[in-house]
Amino acid sequence: MSKKMDRRQRLKYHIRKKVSGTAERARLSVFRSNTTIYAQVIDDERGVTVASASSKELGEGARLNTNTSAAAEVGKKLAERAKEAGVTKVVFDRNGYLYHGKVKALADGAREGGLQF
């Protein structure tokens, strides 16, 4: 692996030692690829994904241009689906990424959509 990936893995392990999702307060996990941003709300006690969303669902233009506005839309869509499933409080798992740019935009979009964290 590259030096950058090794650093992210180390950060990810440190975050996951402290952050865990429960039925009352699920975990919102973020993953970024070069073309898409993904987010899931996970109940770790049951090992179940409660809700998920990605920029692939937004259409061809948004998926190819994974910018902060697309990430914010993914956050809003995820919040909507999580509320339908009965989840309003989450704990944020940035998955080793810096809380900046697309990750921050997704978090802000989820807050706008009604998730509390």
TrEMBL record:
Gene3D superfamilies, alphabetized: 3.30.420.100
Name of the encoding gene: rplR
Full protein name: Large ribosomal subunit protein uL18
Subunit structure comment from the entry: Part of the 50S ribosomal subunit; part of the 5S rRNA/L5/L18/L25 subcomplex. Contacts the 5S and 23S rRNAs.
Record-stated family: Belongs to the universal ribosomal protein uL18 family.
Lineage, broadest ranks: Bacteria, Pseudomonadati, Bacteroidota, Cytophagia, Cytophagales
Xref: HAMAP family: Ribosomal_uL18_B
Physiological role: This is one of the proteins that bind and probably mediate the attachment of the 5S RNA into the large ribosomal subunit, where it forms part of the central protuberance.
SUPFAM superfamilies listed in its UniProt record: Translational machinery components
Keyword Metal-binding listed: no
Stored InterPro entries: Ribosomal_L18, Ribosomal_uL18_bac-type, Ribosomal_uL18_bac/plant/anim
Matching NCBIfam families: L18_bact (TIGR00060)
Annotated keywords: Ribonucleoprotein, Ribosomal protein, RNA-binding, rRNA-binding
A Gene Ontology term for the protein's cellular component: ribosome
